[in-house]
Design brief:
Length: about 375
């Protein structure tokens, strides 16, 4: 088993900076003594008190440099910077027990630091996936994050808010995320107790104020109308606009699009459109439990959709998701890959939903 402590073979030494670079103090002093002895013919030998003063000065410099190096290592480990915790590999091995080869357990915070979520939010296919994962962590797993994972969490959240404010896209998703995160923090601080939160309570108070500031910025967000001469959605034929509406998987997005023009409003009220949306998200056995009828005795599929989503979970749909290799027990993004030892790596990988990602670290 490798020795991970300090090197026992040497008591260590002090390092000083010279014209040729950093040198160990003992050798550096010997060189000075040799140079001084060789040049004794031309200059006077330095006094003992002067050497002791230089030795004391170099020792102090060496101690200061050692403290600075340790502080830099500690700051890098704790992720004090605004960037994500850096790791060369963008995958993580999920192990739930201690073995001779691996000691300890893989935690949610460690996985959150290792996987490249800062780059994932820049990809339109993965943006909703990361937002949903942050929302689930805020609702149930916020207290299980370490200090480094907390900083990484809020750094990624800050990047998401800035991206939404700049691009003016998906503001509703971030509003829901911040609402859940703020409510969870209020419950943890007031009802559960401050002891469940890792870190100083003043840091969490500052984070709560930051969340309120972000909510205020998103509420005051004004979508600027783009003035261009290109073809817009309203210029498309009627059947193409209707086909685009059938590609939506969220009822609120359909209603928002229906408020743009009168034509889109007429298309968004189609009964067949809401029926297809209900059949996509929910099972037919759930329709009988929450059947909504109009005055004419017909099924109100639009009202049924919003009623069913209160009691039943909707089907999640993401452009790209994390992959889990059953052969290697490794989580990774599809484009980064991982060192798989299977004969057919593609057959061993399965997509992981945000809830499944959290369940992997529940021991």
């Amino acid at each position: 088993m490798p020795f991970l402590g300090q090197d026992w073979r040497s008591p260590g030494g002090y390092w000083v900076k010279s014209d040729d670079g950093w040198k160990r103090f003992e050798f550096y002093r010997r060189e000075e003594e040799e140079e001084s002895s060789s040049s004794s013919r031309h200059r006077r030998q330095p006094e003992l008190g002067q050497l002791q003063e230089e030795s004391q000065e170099n020792r102090i410099i060496g101690e200061d440099c050692e403290v600075i190096v340790k502080k830099r290592k500690k700051d890098h480990f704790n992720n004090n910077t605004k960037t994500q915790y850096f790791c060369q590999e963008k995958w993580i091995y999920v192990h739930k027990g201690s073995t001779r080869e691996r000691h300890g357990y893989c935690t949610l915070g460690e996985a959150f630091n290792r996987l490249d979520f800062s780059s994932a939010i820049q990809d339109m296919r993965r943006f909703n996936y990361v937002v949903k994962l942050l929302q689930l962590i805020a609702n149930s797993q916020l207290t299980s994050l370490s200090g480094a994972a907390q900083k990484n969490y809020f750094n990624i959240l800050e990047k998401i808010v800035r991206k939404v404010l700049e691009d003016q896209q998906n503001p509703r998703l971030i509003k829901n995320l911040l609402q859940d995160l703020g409510s969870a923090l209020c419950i943890l601080v007031r009802e559960v107790g401050r002891c469940v939160l890792v870190g100083n309570i003043n840091i969490w108070v500052c984070r709560m104020e930051t969340i309120l500031n972000w909510q205020h910025q998103l509420n005051n967000l004004q979508i600027t109308r783009q003035m261009n001469t290109r073809t817009t959605l309203s210029d498309l034929p009627l059947h193409m606009q209707n086909s685009i509406l059938y590609r939506f998987s969220d009822g609120l997005d359909i209603i928002s699009l229906g408020q743009v023009t009168s034509t889109l409003h007429m298309l968004s009220e189609d009964r067949h459109l809401w029926k297809k949306l209900c059949q996509y998200h929910f099972a037919e056995t759930q329709f009988c439990r929450h059947l909504m009828l109009t005055e004419n005795g017909c099924v109100d599929w639009k009202l049924m959709y919003f009623t069913l989503q209160k009691y039943c979970p909707k089907k999640e749909q993401y452009g790209d998701a994390l992959q889990f290799c059953r052969h290697c027990s490794i989580l990774f993004w599809k484009d980064t890959g991982h060192p798989c030892t299977a004969n057919n790596p593609e057959s061993c990988s399965t997509p992981v939903s945000p809830q499944h990602f959290i369940d992997l670290f529940k021991f």
